[in-house]
Amino acid sequence: AQKVTQAQTEISVVEKEDVTLDCVYETRDTTYYLFWYKQPPSGELVFLIRRNSFDEQNEISGRYSWNFQKSTSSFNFTITASQVVDSAVYFCALSEAKTGTASKLTFGTGTRLQVTL
Amino acid sequence: DTAVSQTPKYLVTQMGNDKSIKCEQNLGHDTMYWYKQDSKKFLKIMFSYNNKELIINETVPNRFSPKSPDKAHLNLHINSLELGDSAVYFCASSHGRGGAGELFFGEGSRLTVL
């Protein structure tokens, strides 16, 4: 069975600090996909990134970066120079590759990030 | 133009009633989903349809019945509502890519059962 663990329930930082959100996953599949979603206070779920299990290259998008390490089953997310607008709940999710056409995402419990001035 | 739209956004109803939530996507995706987010923010898949065919049906009480009239629409009907059904229900869509397709979510429908 798949499992995603986000051990950090809540993180508070001051604006401009860097912050890393941890994600550890479990799966028996060799092919799988990892995702990060953002849920701001307004409630919608915003897709941030998808990574497949064969691509361990780190990715950077502006102030956001992701570190995927298969050896430790982790897919961590770093925000550099955090801003108040980054305040949200962030979800890590895992999808197995064998569910036919669907992406059956298993979500972690989320990490609430609070960025203050 | 909203990519995935759900109506209504808020639902307040009494126990025992029946209610429906509608969802439409204009992204051209062939796969649609219903997810439930409980009060602790935990997200769990309920159903998925691909081209009007049910392909994922998690252990959801049969009071919940999804219906997909076409690949752009997925509705959720709930009979005999219970207190525990109070949650935010998210509709989503994706390209069918064997698990790789990222999901695009609607804004959610907050259901409160009194």
List the helices and strands and how they pair.
The complex is a heterodimer of chains A (117) and B (114).
Chain A (H helix, E strand, L loop, with lengths): L2 E3 L4 E5 L4 E3 L2 E3 L5 E8 L6 E7 L6 E3 L2 E6 L4 E6 L8 E9 L8 E3 L3 E6 L1
Parallel strand pairs in A: 2-12
Antiparallel strand pairs in A: 1-4, 3-9, 5-6, 5-10, 7-8, 8-9, 10-11, 10-12
Chain B lengths: L3 E4 L2 E4 L5 E7 L5 E7 L5 E8 L2 E5 L6 E7 L2 E6 L8 E8 L9 E2 L3 E5 L1
Parallel strand pairs in B: 2-11
Antiparallel strand pairs in B: 1-3, 3-8, 4-5, 4-9, 5-6, 7-8, 9-10, 9-11
Textual characterization of the structure:
The complex is a heterodimer of chains A (117) and B (114). Chain A has 117 residues and is mostly beta strands. Helices cover 0% and strands 53% of the residues of chain A. Chain A is built from no helices and 12 strands. Chain A has strands at residues 3-5, 10-14, 19-21, 24-26, 32-39, 46-52, 59-61, 64-69, 74-79, 88-96, 105-107, 111-116. In chain A, strands 2, 5, 6, 10, 11 and 12 form a 6-stranded mixed beta sheet that branches. Chain A starts with a strand and ends with a strand. The mean pLDDT of chain A is 93. By secondary structure, chain B is an all-beta fold. In chain B, 0% of the residues lie in helices and 55% in strands. In chain B, a hairpin with a 2-residue loop joins strand 7 (64-70) and strand 8. Chain B is globular. The mean pLDDT of chain B is 92. The chains are: A mainly beta (117), B mainly beta (114). The interface between A and B is medium-sized, with 29 and 30 residues.
